[in-house]
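Lay summary. Proteins are chains of building blocks that fold into shapes, and those shapes determine what they do. In this project we predict the shape from the chain. Here is one chain we studied, written as its sequence of building blocks.
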Amino acid sequence: MKPRASRWWGRAGGMVSEHLIAIAFGFCATGLLGLGFFALHLLDRSRDTDAWVLHAAVAIGKLEALHLALVQTESAGRAFLISGSAVSRLRYDRVLATIDEQLAAFKAYTADNPDQQKLIPALEQNIARRFAYMDALIGLRVGHGVQAVVKATMVGTGTREMESIRANISEMKTIETRLLDERRAAQARDDARFERALALLIVVGIALMAAMFWNMKRLWAALSHAQAAALEQAHHDTLTGLPNRRLLHDRLRVALARANRYGDILAVLCLDLDGFKPVNDTYGHAVGDELLRRVGERLAGLMRTEDTAARIGGDEFVVVLSRIEDVTYSERVAARIMRSLCAPYALHGGPVAISTSIGIAVSPADGTEAADLLKAADAALYEAKKLGKARYASTGTRTQREVETAS
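And here is the predicted shape, written in a compact code that computers can read:
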């Protein structure tokens, strides 16, 4: 049940990761699209604001031009009243003619501003009264001389009217300046909102990219783990963890190629467990599998780095000894294996003891090809079993007892 559960969770985790990646991509795309629309909206507002800023600046410029024309007209009129110069009179008439045009132009330009439209009639009246008064003074100057003008100006009406005109223009400029400031403040707020939105999108984008990278890394690690597990399963025995028949043949071919190149001695040992079937039948397959695992552990513990211990099926094992000193080394290793595997095993069904039979083949004496060596070792194993089991034999049919006697 556990492997199935882990596979289920692995599939679920992969699906969740894939969905998270898809969601992250979708969110980024949506965010970029939204930011694009927001930027276009702010761009339109910025253009409107720029237009209003320009409009206010032009309106202020028109007011200043109007004020300048009024000052010039007033100055030309006073010059004529003092000097009676025809040039001053001509200049007064010429500048006065432009005032109505400028006032009409300002009125049309600010037609969308009700505040300005409310103030324009008062300004028109003040201008009309002021220059009607100036025209009257000019008439006195022409008909009665400068003394009549001096006497008339002592009343102070002209001064009050000019102050009213200045006050009108100043109020109008204040309105336009306020609008200008409001538009600039609105533009600054829009810029700040855009910057905040952009910063938020960048932060969210970085977070999503980090999440995507983490998920991609996790998926890659899971894929690598799955590939490694598949490779492990394809080349190793699932019960004992030892190399299986396929990996054994690969390693044996590599070891033989090296031995043939450098003239090394190589040995192949075929092992068969004596008494394994009765243990399996008596205690059940679970105990039998546990016994095989323990045998695999003991075998692996006896191997050097360059050696290979493999399970090729059932209770059959093969050991490859690379770069050995001489033929007798393989027999010493076989004796060591027999002593290790014959020691009792503490299993769930109680202590269990088995023995093993081993057949030995050596290269190059028994062959230089993998198939030849395995065949020779299997034949030697058959001889060992025929002689009574619980012993080893080489291709020369030397048994364990003979080796111990010789030694």
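What the prediction tells us: The chain has two domains: 2-206, 245-406.
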